[in-house]
Design goal:
The complex is a heterodimer. By secondary structure, chain A is an alpha/beta fold. Helix content of chain A is about 25%, strand content about 25%. By secondary structure, chain B is mostly helical. The chains are: A alpha/beta, B mainly alpha.
């Protein structure tokens, strides 16, 4: 028989306001096994914990029930205190009489009665509890960063700096991400490439970092500290180890009319290409959708001109397998498709462009060499209209657009407007805004500079429609402060498109069993207090995959995610969950039901020799649980038809005892 | 149309706001004041109060000026504002609800069979006549 101590917490008036705590303590003192029962104002305080420890020693307690807040809150606190007093921590149970009782009831009599019943159920369970010990597993001291944009690069650099090997998996032929496509960065207007490319080179040269470009994560198995990851290295038909990046093949390739995705399709590239001059790794990639040799077997020019023999048309996708202790997700974002926004004539006129397209048009390495020209006729625009919040801040479940604010558009639009006015003072620039949202260091000052110093016309209102007519764009818009409808003949319209998580994020989240919100942003373990960790242990979040953010914030978060990953990699051993499944081999009939429902691959079947009562031996196929992999979800225990599988700490008889106590 | 200068019968104003919100099914609090409705309105210049003002004035309870406004009969019911509104506010439904609130008062019909002859010609589609009766009569 257990010797159980019951402690009923007042939680100030949080519990005591609706539950007669002394009556609960009195009622539970008569339960079987209970030798001590007391109530106290704050059990989680040092005094409360001291009371618990003293009682364990003085009354030789073998089990404890704390009637208090949710176990999510203080189960750890109390179990630690019990352990310090020499009790196995798993001999302590919490009866949640706050969230599940006092907070949801108003009537003292009802609240008290329910608290007694909840306490009684916990006592019934503790009577059947057995001491448990957690196993330990080693940590693989290697990190995986998924995504090679500024978020992924910064995270990898920081982890590598701490001395751990890191692999970056990037699906494009080069790392750099969106930042590589930007012209200038707010609020300092330094050139994006000038501050990004040194980091890209640093990542390439760092001996702790391996870059898998043109590669994708194919499969993730395992758990915190011990992930098994399959990475698909897509065939680029060029031997990365031989290619010197001289670019001769790209010049000679006869397929010149391939839309250049780096310049958002505003110019073309060859079928064999290097995305941009500072690409890392600087090696060529053959686009199999356009290469004549790969499509029809004729051509092979690139192979002929390559002096180092790097071209290999027979290359196949390769799967590599690697073990990691920590995974950082940095999958980034894309602007939403603007095809559905008919009112802005995006698909009708070439001169209606997205802000990212404008970045390329303003960039010295872009399709116009940095001169702002209309894509339709190559003339200099004299009137440019910017439209903010295109597809951002829409109603929930909008057919086109997102409910959230994309956060970066106000600042980059101010930047664009300012740069155009600076370079081309003869150009009139209008910005239509709903709200100007520029919180951030030197951000509002930056926006005001666009208005006051550069004379950008900021107009409170939205553009209703854009009609292409005689080479002009007729813009009809609201000026709400003047209560007027404006009609502007513009040469160019720039749409600040909402941003959305990259499409690869959703399937990746499924592989990682990491949770996402309805917009496909990864969710944090706690929105305020654990902002860079996924609720899935060992998975960390960096950059826009977690929510819209600008470069300074992304870099800060990348560093934070890195430090969390380093904290994990520094540990030699990780304590496993003690509440894992175990199989009673004598009862197991070898049906494989448990193996099928296990989401973590923790169950395997083994042939085992058994001595039978008649002294013969028999070989039977039985389930065996790997406690290091088991997450304690209990799916196997409920699937088992013979009652052989059970979950430690939540055994079937313990749960039934609780149910009996609740129904008494 | 009927005499535009005649004195209209007005409903109780406290009642009118709730009634307009009820019959339109519009929640004006959803509006984020972007003005895209008025930016897109083809009858903007004809209207004394513009679509975004209908939303704002119904929300703040300034119903009387709306009830008296000629804007009610200038709205083309083209639904452009409904289509473009990013927040799904549906300003046109408010214009219609305000108009119905006026027309449902006794003797406030804005269009009678007698006045039909005044507008009728061979080019007028029958649908326009039906629509006019639906829009301007109780």
């Amino acid at each position: 028989m257990q010797r159980i101590g019951v402690f009923v917490c007042h939680c100030g008036t949080n519990i005591a306001g609706t539950v007669d705590v002394s009556q609960v303590a009195e009622a539970l003192s008569h339960e079987p096994g209970v030798v001590y029962s007391k109530d106290y104002t704050y059990m989680c305080s040092a005094t409360g914990q001291g009371m618990l420890k003293d009682a364990i020693r003085d009354y030789n307690l073998t089990g404890v029930v704390i009637c208090s807040c949710s176990p999510r809150m203080h189960e750890n606190t109390f179990r630690k205190a019990a352990e310090q007093a020499g009790l196995n921590p798993f001999m302590l149970e919490i009866a949640n009489i706050r969230e599940q009782c006092s907070w949801v009831h108003k009537d003292m009599a009802i609240g008290t009665a329910k608290a007694i019943v909840l306490g009684r159920a916990a006592v019934a369970k503790v009577n059947l509890n057995a001491p448990l010990t957690s196993g330990e597993t080693a940590v693989t001291k290697r990190a995986l960063v998924i995504g090679g944009g500024i978020a992924g690069i910064q995270t990898a650099l920081d982890i590598a700096d701490a001395g751990f090997p890191v692999d970056i998996v990037e699906k494009k032929p080069t790392i750099g991400g969106k930042m590589a496509q930007l012209d200038k960065t707010f609020p300092t207007l330094d050139c994006a490439a000038c501050i990004l490319t040194p980091k890209m080179v640093e990542a390439q040269q760092n001996e702790n970092i391996t870059i898998y470009s043109y590669s994708e994560v194919e499969d993730v198995k395992g758990f915190v500290g011990n992930f098994d990851v399959k990475i698909r290295r897509k065939a680029r038909y060029v031997d990365e180890t031989k290619c010197t990046g001289c670019g001769l093949c790209t010049e000679k390739c006869p397929m010149k009319k391939v839309p250049n995705e780096f310049n958002l399709g505003m110019d073309s590239r060859h079928a064999v290409y290097i995305p941009f001059a500072q690409a890392v790794p600087k090696v060529a990639t053959i686009d199999p959708n356009y290469c004549l040799k790969l499509k029809s077997g004729k051509c092979g020019l690139c192979s002929k001109v390559c002096s180092v023999g790097a071209i290999d048309y027979t290359q196949k996708d390769e799967i590599i397998e690697e073990k990691y202790g920590a995974i950082v997700v940095a999958t980034g974002y894309n602007p939403i498709s603007l095809d559905k926004f008919d009112e802005f004539a995006y698909s009708k006129s070439k001169d209606v462009i997205s802000s990212l397209e404008l970045e390329r048009l303003m960039n010295a390495a872009g399709p116009t060499g940095g001169t702002l020209l209309r894509p339709s006729d190559g003339t200099h625009p004299h009137t440019v209209v910017f439209v903010q919040c295109v597809g951002s801040r829409c109603e929930a479940n909008a057919e086109k657009g997102k409910e959230y604010c994309s956060k970066i558009c106000c600042m980059y639009t101010a930047k664009h407007a300012m740069l155009i006015r600076d370079k081309y003072p003869d150009t009139d620039v209008y910005v239509f805004y709903i709200d100007v949202r520029t919180p951030g260091k030197n951000f509002d000052e930056f926006y005001r500079r666009a208005v006051e110093q550069y004379g950008v016309h900021y107009i409170k209102g939205m553009v209703g429609k854009v009609t292409p007519e005689d080479g002009k764009l007729k813009v009809q818009a609201s000026d709400l402060l003047d209560n007027r409808q404006l009609k502007i003949d513009a040469d160019m319209v720039v749409l600040a498109a909402a941003i959305e998580p990259d499409k690869s994020a959703r399937p990746l989240a499924t592989m990682l069993t990491a949770s996402m919100d309805t917009n496909d942003f990864f969710t944090e373990a706690h929105p305020k207090l654990r902002p860079v960790e996924s609720p899935t242990a060992g998975v960390f979040l960096s950059g826009v995959c977690q929510g819209p953010k600008d470069i300074p914030e992304t870099v800060a978060q990348a560093g934070a995610a890195a430090s969390k990953a380093i904290g994990l990699l520094c540990k030699d051993k990780l304590k496993n969950n003690a509440c894992v499944a175990e199989s009673n081999e004598m009862m197991c009939n070898g049906c494989s039901q448990c193996e099928k429902v296990c989401a973590y691959g923790a169950i395997t079947y083994v042939d085992k020799e058994f001595r039978m009562p008649d002294r013969t031996t028999q070989v039977r196929r039985v389930a065996s649980v790997n406690p290091a992999v088991c997450q304690g979800c209990g799916a196997c225990a409920s699937a088992c038809p013979s009652g052989a599988m059970d979950l430690k700490g939540f055994k079937n008889d313990q749960i039934l005892a609780e149910v009996d106590a609740l129904c008494r | 149309m009927a005499d535009e200068n005649k004195e209209l019968k007005m409903p109780d104003m406290n009642y009118a706001k709730d009634e307009i919100i009820r019959i339109s099914g519009v929640n004006p609090r959803k509006c984020m004041r972007c003005g895209k409705c008025s930016a897109t309105c083809p009858a903007y210049d004809e209207m004394e109060y513009h679509p975004h003002q209908f939303v704002y004035m119904v929300e703040t309870g300034e119903i009387e000026p709306l009830l008296k406004s000629k804007s009610l009969y200038k709205c083309l019911s083209c639904f452009a504002c409904i289509d473009r509104c990013p927040r799904g506010v549906e300003p046109e439904k408010l214009v219609e609800a305000v108009r119905l609130t006026v027309e449902r008062q006794q003797g406030n019909d804005h269009f009678t069979p007698d006045s039909l002859a005044e507008f009728y010609d061979d080019d007028m589609p029958q649908q326009a006549i039906v629509s006019a009766f639906r829009k301007y009569r109780k």
